[in-house]
Task: structure prediction
Amino acid sequence: MPVSHWRKLMIRLTRTVSAVGIGILQLACIARPATAEAVTDAFGGKRIQMVIGWDVGGGYDIYARLLARHLGKHIPGNPTIVPQNMPGAGSRLAANWLYNVAPKDGTAIATIGQGTPLDQAMNESGVRYDAAKLNWIGNPIIDNLVTAVNQRSGVETLDDLKKKAVCIAVTSAPVRPRHSRKSSISSSARGSRSFQDFPG
Result:
């Protein structure tokens, strides 16, 4: 493809990612489905606490607050949704709170990172939840994440990447990525090689 096509594609992708931020997963601890009448009785006049596992002003926070503004209108009984930030550990604090502390009556939901199940699967520190026992109720976007290398690198397949050192760039805050040291690509594809972070 011509360079101009890739440039346009990357600009469009960058704008999309900037506009929507990182995808979220909404979790609810509601044990079983209920009829509309039962839900109206359960939620009429109530408040639902929406814990946001990230700082104010980020992508997850914007999603959650937008959702909180409108979600109550779509739940029988029209409960008030009250957003509250609980940042920490890549949203693990919020996931731990939801799983271990939050009421289990549907009056607590959380906006946490899409990597929450992966954190558990990779035995990340601080995980105090079982992601399989949480009820996942939605995600406002679909991320199509990719890794790209320059054509001149000689890397065309994952097998090529296993055999050859390559500079891979990603866009993120100048912090250690959540899974860079333990990611499937670093452990299986790169073998014993490590990734080098270049902050800034």
Remarks:
- The chain has two domains: 17-138, 147-200.
- The radius of gyration is 20 Å.
- Residues 13-32, 173-194 have pLDDT under 50 and may be disordered.
- The helical segments are 3-20, 36-43, 59-71, 92-100, 116-121, 158-163, 184-189.
